[in-house]
Design brief:
about 450 residues; seven-stranded mixed sheet; six-stranded mixed sheet; 18 strands; binds NADP nicotinamide-adenine-dinucleotide phosphate; binds magnesium ion
Length: about 450
């Protein structure tokens, strides 16, 4: 059994059977058997089933939010927002079966047409930081395109995925179309990656595990989507509304206790604005409410596990000094205070590696060229923000930063209807928006000779 721990209390909240490689094989076999029937359902009928699933998830939204808040240690208000996004995601892709359009292409001697064909059985491997949201980003387009799914949630957070499987069955999604195998990545994840009957792996997680998945997928030439780590920049120019930027900056890095691939954990601030910015940041960080995820007022919960807390703490090393930090509750739970380091350079470990916890490095810069150079001086390229009073400059900088998802005068990273994914070692492929469907289908070209 897997003992599922609640991070805010450090107590076991549930036990679920731990799947092994043979359970993955069974799930793949069920998904393979279900595939011909699922792809053959008329597009309008598949759309109705997905709308039905969205409705059913909407009806269960408040219990799912509590489950997710407890299991992942995230503030209930955030968890509610995430479940709302899960519902929106299934609804958005419910429109897709009837919009998977091909082309007709002018050629000599006949008619040439293209079709977007489903891939077959797809393996989905998801992390613990946004368990059901990231599951929906993959499951919804995969099912909409006519694939069947074997989903491996993170061992630390399997509960919402197990609920999703039950809810899908109750909503009329046929048996075998969506199969959940909660088990360790090194066993169940690996088996999915190697399995000859799995056509594609869509993975979200660390760059390190992602490298192994890309290598493992090569054996059977699987399609792969990788959403990996980040070390994103929050670039603040002196002509920006520094108060607004400082008020928004904590959530851009301390949201989900910093366990966010989009965390803007490098705050690049134009040199003349550093003192004002640090003063404003200190006010907002010290007023952050860290505590019980189920309390409506909570803005930041605990970290996911005790061992992850040790990893995060290891970034406070001899190279850096803490400028200021927030408070944490007493008692059990894997608490770590929101922490801002004294202004430093881009060369320290805390500025180079993904911390995945509530630790922000402020890095001063002089002028636009240096801002771009520093923002790009990383192996990652996932997201970032630009705070700037000059619209033309903001757009110039946005075009020059090598990252997949940028926002100007805003922290936002993710919308269901727009593409999300990384440049460089932050990943391959895109999720969400219309682009995701390209990654769950192959294009088929058919020529019909008309004589
Ligand atoms: P992780 O350690 O890479 O694990 C992610 C998933 O992969 C888990 O389900 C894990 O299973 C599984 N896994 C582990 N080893 C595996 C293997 N050898 N073969 C196949 N699967 C394997 O990541 P994490 O610690 O859960 O999450 C944090 C990371 O995710 C961060 O780097 C973060 O940036 C990244 N992330 C990226 C995005 C994005 O969209 N770009 C979004 C969120 C998070 P078990 O844990 O159950 O063993
Ligand atoms: Mg991990």
């Amino acid at each position: 059994m897997i003992e599922v721990v609640e991070p805010a209390s450090a107590e076991v909240m549930a036990e679920v059977p731990r799947a092994g490689a043979e359970d993955v094989d069974d799930a793949v076999a069920r998904a393979k058997e279900a595939f011909p029937g699922w792809r053959a359902i008329a597009p309008g009928e598949r759309a109705k089933l997905l709308h039905g699933l969205a409705d059913a998830l909407g009806e269960r939204a408040s219990d799912l939010a509590v489950l997710e808040a407890r299991n992942a240690g995230k503030p209930i208000a955030d968890a509610r927002g995430e479940i709302a996004m899960v519902v929106d995601c299934f609804r958005y892709y419910a429109a897709a079966p009837e919009r998977l359009l091909g082309q007709t292409i002018p050629v000599g001697g006949g008619i040439d047409m293209t079709f977007r064909e489903p891939l077959g059985v797809v393996g989905l491997i998801v992390p613990w930081n946004f368990p059901l949201v990231i599951t929906s980003w993959k499951t919804a387009p995969a099912l909409a395109a006519g694939n069947t799914v074997v989903l491996k949630p993170a061992e630390l957070t399997p509960l919402s995925a197990i609920e999703l499987e039950r809810i899908a069955l109750d909503a009329g999604i046929p048996e075998g179309v969506l199969n959940v195998v909660p088990g360790p990545g090194s066993v169940c994840g690996r088996r999915l990656v190697e399995h000859p009957d799995v056509a594609k792996i869509a993975f979200t997680g660390s760059t390190e595990v992602g490298r192994g998945i890309a290598a493992g997928a090569a054996g059977t030439i699987k399609r792969v989507t990788l959403e990996l780590g980040g070390k994103s920049a929050n670039v603040v120019f002196a002509d920006a509304d520094t108060e607004a930027a400082a008020a928004a900056a904590p959530l851009a890095v301390f949201g989900n206790a910093g366990q966010d691939c989009c965390a803007r954990s490098r705050i690049l601030v134009e040199r003349e604005a550093v003192d004002d910015f640090m003063a404003a940041l200190e006010r907002t960080v010290k007023s952050m409410v860290v505590g019980d995820p189920l309390d409506e007022a909570t803005q930041m919960g605990p970290l996911i596990s005790s061992s992850h807390r040790e990893t995060v703490a290891s970034f406070l090393d001899a190279e850096t000094r803490v400028a200021f930090r927030g408070d944490v509750p007493e008692g059990p739970g894997f608490w770590f205070p929101p922490t801002v380091l004294e202004p430093t350079t881009n060369d320290v470990r805390a500025a180079r590696e993904e911390i995945f916890g509530p630790v922000a490095a402020v890095i001063p810069f002089s002028g636009e060229a240096e801002a771009i150079e520093l923002a790009n001086d990383t192996i990652y390229g996932l997201s970032g923000s630009i705070w700037c009073g000059d619209g033309a400059r903001a757009l110039r900088v946005a075009r020059a930063i090598d990252a997949g998802v940028l926002s100007i005068n805003s922290n936002s990273s993710v919308r269901v209807s727009t593409p999300f994914g990384g440049f460089k070692q932050s990943g391959v492929g895109r999720e969400l928006g219309p682009d995701a469907l390209d990654h769950y289908t192959d294009v088929k070209n058919v020529f019909y000779a008309t004589g």
